[in-house]
Specification:
Number of domains: 2
Number of strands: 18
CATH class of the largest domain: Alpha Beta
Distance between the termini: 85 Å
Largest sheet: 6 strands, mixed
Structural class: alpha+beta
Strand order of the largest sheet: 3-2-1-4-8-14
Radius of gyration: 51 Å
Shape: rod-shaped
Length: 457
């Protein structure tokens, strides 16, 4: 199973969640090499494997969001209309931006409600370049606003309060975001210039409340049919709960509530909690199918190249498999030959049983052959040897094979007796070439004896 990794980039912080584990590192600059080095360090410390599912979250203050009503339900027509809308409504060339949208539904009369998100290409190029040294490709690039919706849904135990419209106020380090949610979909979003650092100043708190009220008024005019009665605060907004709750209750009759998860509460980066992890934690719990996802041609090309590489790998595996099959066929044929040879040997053995009588006759002829030639007969040799053996020589054993040497061993009291016996045998007709192979003295019961061995070639 793949490990989900959420990476959120802001101007000053790199926020990473691996599974539900959170890591935050300060960013000195947004240079791709710096971000790549930070990500490498995070992955090394977390000891995560290579099977990763990576999503990049772009902060809301880097994205322009517009709510657009278009008179069509056809996705292709909607994309064409949005392309024309971009040309007329944004202060950039169309080639300088990437855009994505979410269809909020048809009003039942004539228009589809579209939430359009626009961001500059330069930010995406930095992201793609940052992932180059890691040999990783993000699955998609998401917008932080929808991560807040998933975060609130995950944090609240009572899901019934989410059935109707509600508001979310998330305060990050240097900006805040107010979003309107209806039917668990992002209906509108407003960025407030004040973040946790700015709200340390009392004058900025007053401006923050003014901008918050202006955002609520903008929602009422933009989506008049959607009236929210609850506001959920997240991120670094817990310190501002009192003033926000007082302002909303007095002027808008909206109840405020701070929500958090155990992952957020247990996280301690070694400094005051002045940054928001809500979007990253929200996407770590789920990434909805209809969430806004920016599609980058560079990523698509690289993914296609990876797919081609996998196909080539599969082809290589198939070729190796075919080679192994041919080798297996060769081994089978070799085994068949060996089996055939074994069968032949078995037949030879079975035939040998039938020819046993012939072999017996042959053996008898060999035995008889020993007696046909008197000089080659062992009995003749034993007889002649007994004639020449003097009284001082004792023979203990004989060794004779037909057509080979004849040898015998024994012992005597003196070596001269053995030498004389050897000379006598050598001069005889049957024992010509007799040689004394060795003599060895030994003592038996206080008597010296001489062992010997004589060979007749």
């Amino acid at each position: 199973m793949k490990t989900k990794v959420i990476i959120e980039l802001s101007e000053r912080w790199l926020k990473v969640t691996i599974g539900r584990k959170v890591s935050v590192d300060p960013i000195l600059n947004t240079d791709p090499a710096t971000i790549a080095a930070l990500l490498t360090s995070v992955f090394k410390q977390s000891k995560c494997g290579k099977d990763l599912e990576v999503f990049v979250v772009l902060s809301r203050n880097k994205i322009t969001v517009r709510r657009v009503d278009l008179p069509s339900q056809d996705p292709k027509e909607i994309e064409q209309m949005l392309g024309l809308y971009l040309i007329r409504q944004i202060p950039y060339h169309k080639e300088e931006v990437f855009w994505a949208y979410q269809n909020l539904g048809f009003d039942g009369i004539s228009n589809s409600h579209i939430l359009l998100a626009i961001a500059l290409k330069n930010m995406f190029r930095n992201i793609v370049t940052s992932f180059g040294p890691l040999n990783l490709l993000p699955e998609s690039i998401l917008m932080s606003s929808q991560g807040l919706i998933h975060y609130v849904s995950d944090a609240l135990k009572d899901k019934s309060v989410l059935q109707g419209p509600y508001l979310i106020l998330d305060i990050d380090t240097n900006y805040s975001e107010l979003i309107l949610v209806n039917k668990q979909k992002l209906n509108s979003s407003v960025v407030l210039a004040q973040g946790a650092e700015q709200l340390k100043d009392e004058r900025e708190k007053d401006r923050f409340i003014v901008e918050l009220k202006q955002g609520l008024v903008a929602f009422n005019s933009e989506v008049p049919d959607v009236k929210a009665e609850r506001l959920f605060l997240s991120g670094a907004s817990e310190a501002q709960l009192v003033i926000v709750e007082a302002a909303l209750a007095r002027d808008f009759n909206i109840k405020a509530q701070y929500v958090s998860t155990k992952d957020y509460d247990s996280f301690n980066p070694g400094q005051p909690k002045e940054l928001s992890l809500s979007a990253a934690l929200g996407f770590s719990s789920q990434v909805a199918r209809d969430d806004i996802k920016f599609i980058l041609p560079e990523l698509q090309i690289k993914k296609e190249m990876q797919a081609k590489a996998r196909q080539l790998m599969v082809l290589g595996v198939c070729l190796v498999y075919i080679f192994i099959m041919f080798c297996a066929i060769g081994l089978v044929r070799m085994a068949q030959k060996q089996s055939y040879s074994a069968n032949l040997k078995a037949k030879v053995k079975s035939l040998a049983k039938d020819t046993q009588e012939l072999e017996d006759i042959t053996n008898k002829l060999k035995v008889a052959k020993q007696y046909v030639n008197p000089k080659a007969s062992v009995l003749t040799l034993l007889y002649e040897l007994s004639r020449f053996c003097p009284e001082g020589i004792t023979i203990t054993n004989f060794n004779w094979e037909l057509g080979k040497t004849f040898s015998f061993r024994g012992y005597a009291q003196q070596i001269p007796d053995i030498l004389a016996f050897t000379n006598t045998l050598s001069n005889s007709e049957y024992f010509k070439g007799a040689q004394n192979r060795y003599t060895r003295r030994r003592t038996v019961k206080d008597r010296e004896m001489v062992d010997f061995e004589i060979v007749i070639k």
